[in-house]
Amino acid sequence: MDDYDVIVVGASIAGCTAATAYGRAGLRVALVERHRSPQAHKTLCGHFVLGGTHDVLQRLGFWQPMVTRGAAVTTGLGMWTEHGWIVPRPDNGVPPAISLHRSKLDPLLREIAAATPGVDLMLGHRVVGLVQDHAGGVRGVVTANGTAGPTGLRARLVVGADGHHSTVARLAGVPEDHAPNERFLFWTYYEGATMNGPGGGQVWPLGRDVAVCIRVDGGLTQVGVFPAKDRLPEFTDDRQGAFDRFVAGLPDGPSLAGARQTSNLVGTTDYPCIRRDPTPRPGLVLIGDAATSSDPVPAVGCGWAFRSAAWLADATAEPLARGGDLRRAVLGYRRAHRFIDKYDALGRREALARPPGALQRTVRRAAVSDPDIARRLAMFAMRAAPPSALLNPRVVIRAALGSRTAAPRARQPAAPAR
Predict the structure, then answer these.
(1) Summary mean pLDDT of the chain
(2) Rounded to whole angstroms, what are the CA distances from 304 to 20, 70, 144, 183, 291?
(3) Is the pLDDT of residue 407 over 50?
(4) Which value, to the nearest 10 degrees, does the dihedral of the CA atoms of residues 354, 358, 364, 368 take?
(5) How far apart are CA 256 and CA 140, in angstroms?
(6) Are 92 and 216 in contact (CB under 8 A)?
(7) What pLDDT sits at residue 299?
(8) Is 199 helix (H, G, I), strand (E, B) or coil?
(9) Closest by Cα among 178, 167, 160, 125 to 18
(10) What is the pLDDT of residues 303-357, one digit of tens each?
């Protein structure tokens, strides 16, 4: 008899979501986490959860606890273009986004998971091996807990939710598909900043560079920059100065006069784009960053973690509980994961930091004055609809016709001064 029905490795967003959903389905779950402290959290994360995840958070009962802990809810983002702002409409049906620092979010999700009947939260347990059957299927994990000897745990399903450096994937020999990311990123937080653009936050696609400004929890404003890597020397010589100059050059950018910067710059000069098969071997599945670590510019990471975990539980909880065909159920999760795969393919192209193409320019220009295209663009940006909701011939033709008749506007600076 197996020790558990499911073993989930990694107790952050994806792992806690999967463990909670499985526990509520009446399954026995081992939630294995290498950190000993329940307050451990990811630091390199923008913690913005796109609106496409709203339904999952509501269904799992996470939304209200996040709001209670102080999360900021954003109902629409304005996008700057050289033809004017794309202004979000409150009645366009685009679901709201939510933001909560990982120092609050990770402990909250761990708390919810640990309180779920059937879930054993095993802090301080590091996975050092896999239990495999004679056919190469994964049947469990081997963990080490400090000076204690290794412990073997068995289950019908092992879930790798341990990030883009996934130990589970490495031990299983899962191939990795790496793609270049030609941008780097830095962000910080301000108290007392004033937004000058529309919506609960703004996005500036500026040629090869991108910038964002968003309200977050604690009454703070998060300002982030994603420059192309040819600007790295500026930031190497004077990181804070280069950041300040970049933000000061944003058209209709935030007013920081009198604002207090509440953190050091957070970021990295190289963020990986890594993709793995989410269903690589019998008895093993991957969710969250362990399956897909995408370009951070569109802020998809947290949402993909929540959603992939929920899709996995939706597909496999009943077969696990009733002894059904698990292999067929896992294929159902694989089909659901194609939603992420389609967006990741687009994200990998965007991560090359090339100037916007003709299609992007046409759609953005039309969205300034066409509410339907603006709504479709917002649904695309929030990952609340498949890419085809925006990228289809009918919409492209409408955008092209609208762009030709749109009134021209005075050009504004295409990017912050270098």
Answers:
(1) 94
(2) 16, 22, 29, 21, 10
(3) no
(4) 140
(5) 52
(6) no
(7) 95
(8) strand
(9) 160
(10) 999 999 999 999 999 999 999 999 999 999 999 999 999 999 999 999 999 999 9
Residue 90 has what pLDDT? 84
Contact between residue 339 and residue 385 where contact means Cβ atoms under 8 Å apart: no
Helices (H) and strands (E) in the chain, counts: 12, 22
Nearest CA-CA partner of 396 in 350, 418, 349, 364: 364
Residue 63 DSSP SS3: helix
pLDDT score at 404: 64
Q: 115 with 6: CB under 8 angstroms? A: no
Q: Which two tokens stand for residue 155?
A: 């289950």
Output the CA–CA distances (angstroms, integers) from residue 63 to 77, 90, 100, 145, 368, in the order listed. Answer: 20, 20, 11, 33, 31
Q: What number of residues does the chain have? A: 418
Examine the pLDDT at 209 and tell me if it is beyond 60: yes
Mean pLDDT value across residues 168-172 = 97
Tell me: pLDDT of 406 over 70. no
Burial class (CB in 10 A: 0-12, 13-18, 19+), 334: middle
Q: In sequence order, which residues have a C-beta less than 8 Å from that of residue 257 and are 6 or more positions away?
A: none
Query: Average pLDDT, stretch 144-148?
Result: 81
Task: Tell me how far apart the alpha carbons of residues 350 and 179 are, in angstroms, rounded to a whole number.
Answer: 11
Residue 167 is encoded by which pair of tokens? Answer: 């130990």
* DSSP line for 78-114: EEEETTEEEPPPTTS-PPPEEE--HHHHHHHHHHHHH
DSSP letters for 243-269: HHHHHHTSTT--B-TT-EE-S--EEES
- CA-angle at 194, arms to 415 and 191, nearest 5°: 110
- How far, in Å, CA of 43 to CA of 65, rounded? 21
Q: What is the DSSP letter of 183?
A: B
CA gap 362, 357 in Å, rounded: 9
- Which residues lie closer than 8 Å to 33 by C-beta, 6 or more apart? 10, 11, 15, 40, 110, 121, 122, 123, 124, 125
Given a cut of 50, is residue 65 above it in pLDDT?
yes
